[in-house]
Design goal:
Length: 187
């Protein structure tokens, strides 16, 4: 049985034959890809959705999309990176369907949210920080994940979410302020 670790340093490449077998609809190959990707993609889904039930739904939808769109993967770049983009987009579509993003507010509504001096971020455990991120409102959590964790620019976030760059910045600032409040509450 193939495992990611068997393939390359760091285990990031997927054998072309395995991907071709997936394209050909071979269930064993699809299961191997699922087993290799599901832990990381579940973590991604949890970050965006904030709860396990919705994250599991998005994970399932993401794998369905991945396997149905596998022909569009041309082999350029990392397969895992390509898959990650599918799962981010699936999570965003889910959030849009449930209108959880509420991106219609404007920067003018964010008056008073910006501070000149940032409070120093304390060192925290990853799990504790991720629990705090999961507790953010869906719109702030989504922008925070896209900007801080996935590395999207505000321009890219605005395009993906159908909002302005100013709204993206506002949502990120709200997320940061709320996270800082939660950190201060744990002192």
């Amino acid at each position: 049985m193939w495992t990611r670790e068997d393939n390359s340093p760091g285990g990031h490449a997927f054998p072309q034959q395995l991907l071709q077998d997936c394209k050909d609809g071979k269930l064993k190959a699809q299961r191997q890809v699922y087993d290799a990707l599901s832990p990381k993609m579940m973590a991604l889904c949890l970050r965006y959705m904030g709860n396990r039930e919705d994250a599991e739904d998005v994970l399932q939808e993401g794998f369905i999309t991945l396997f149905t769109k596998l022909d569009s993967y041309q082999g350029a770049g990392s397969f895992e990176g390509w898959a990650r983009r599918i799962f981010v987009n699936t999570a965003l579509m889910h959030l849009r369907r449930t209108d959880a993003l509420g991106l219609s507010d404007d920067i003018t509504e964010a008056h008073g949210l910006f501070t000149e001096e940032a409070t120093p971020v304390q060192k925290m455990g990853y799990r504790e920080l991720m629990q705090m991120v999961a507790a953010l409102p869906p719109d702030a959590r989504t922008v925070f994940n896209m900007y801080v964790i996935e590395g999207y620019s505000h321009k890219e976030i605005a395009k993906e979410l159908g909002c302005t760059e100013a709204t993206s910045r506002s949502k990120l600032q709200r997320a940061r302020i709320r996270l800082q409040e939660m950190i201060n509450e744990t002192k």
